[in-house]
Specification:
By secondary structure, the chain is an all-alpha fold. Helix content is 86%, strand content 0%.
């Protein structure tokens, strides 16, 4: 048994490393995958940038506006209507009507239930309990004793003798015969079917499967690594292309437009504002004021000056202390201070 156990030991793992198959598969796979991945990555980056711009400039403000409109025009009115027309009336109905009525019905039901239960016990339960306790139960116990004695001596004792004296020896013989036939069949199945299949699996199918699995594993691993590497390389290329296009757009369009705006349009706009727009507005304001005054003069010349409304009689102001005409200790006019 010891040599067979030594042969069945699991072989030790090989040291990790890259073989010739890995090196031969990696470079062509990466070249093909890079050619396929770069256009996809460029399109992906462009679509992602466009999507972020659309989301930032259009979809997000639109969503916030629609949410505010929905909350203001639908949620708040519906909630107020629901609370006013449904919740408040139902709450009042529940507190003022249904709760007292339910409590009364429950109290009445408890009283009626207790009475009906007591009446049902008195009419139906207690007579049957007495009949069962004093008549049926004793008769049943006697009948059970007689039936048990008859079953024991007419059924159990003969069945036990039949099992011990007849069925047990016959069963042991049948078991011995079946066991022998099973042993022979198992031996034949083992040497005719199991042993050849085990040898086929151990010495043919398993080595071939391991070789195929190793090849497939190397190919799949290298393809996945190539996709990851080429996706990163395509991202670098996409960023470089984007920066180049941005620089070209900035030098071809943005900087000339900015220069034209700063050096031409801004001074021109200031000149138009200071030389034309402000004097025109001032002249228009002056003309408007002149027309208004002329219209007032014409109205006054044709219809006369408008009549001023009568004002209420003004109350003479109270004299402040120290004002001229006020009484002082030196200018008293009383009889006590006259010379």
């Amino acid at each position: 048994m010891e040599p067979m156990e030594k042969d069945r030991r699991v072989p030790e793992r090989y040291e990790p490393g890259e073989g010739c198959l890995t090196t031969a598969v990696r470079l062509p796979v990466r070249i093909v995958v890079l050619v396929l991945v770069v256009p996809v990555r460029l399109v992906w980056d462009a679509v992602a940038a466009l999507g972020r711009a659309v989301h930032r400039t259009a979809l997000r403000p639109l969503g916030r506006g629609l949410a505010w409109l929905w909350h203001t025009l639908v949620v708040i009115p519906v909630a107020w209507t629901w609370r006013t027309l449904v919740v408040a009336p139902l709450g009042w109905l529940w507190r003022s009507v249904l709760t007292p009525v339910g409590r009364g019905i429950a109290w009445l039901g408890r009283g009626l239930g207790v009475g009906l239960v007591w009446l049902a016990k008195a009419l139906f339960v207690w007579p049957w309990v007495a009949l069962w306790r004093y008549v049926v139960a004793p008769v049943g116990r006697g009948v059970a004793v007689v039936v048990a004695w008859l079953v024991r001596y007419l059924v159990v004792v003969p069945a036990r003798w039949l099992y011990a004296s007849v069925l047990t020896p016959v069963g042991r013989g049948i078991v011995w015969l079946v066991r022998g036939i099973g042993t022979v069949v198992a031996t034949l199945v083992r040497w005719i079917l199991v042993v050849p299949l085990v040898a086929l699996w151990r010495y043919v199918l398993r080595p071939v499967g391991r070789a195929l699995a190793a090849v497939v594993t190397v190919v799949v691993r290298e393809v996945g690594a190539a996709f990851g590497h080429c996706w990163r390389v395509a991202g670098i290329i996409s960023r470089a292309v984007g920066r180049f296009l941005g620089a070209v757009l900035r030098w071809v369009f943005v900087k000339p437009v900015r220069w034209v705006y700063r050096t031409v349009l801004t001074p021109l706009g200031h000149g138009i504002r200071n030389g034309i727009w402000r004097p025109a507005r001032q002249a228009l304001r002056t003309a408007r004021e002149t027309i208004r005054q002329t219209r007032q003069e014409l109205r006054r010349a044709l219809f006369g000056a408008p009549r001023e409304p009568q004002r209420a009689t003004a109350v003479p102001p109270r004299r402040e202390p120290g004002a001229p005409g006020t009484r002082t200790l030196g200018s008293s006019t009383t009889a006590l201070t006259k010379d």
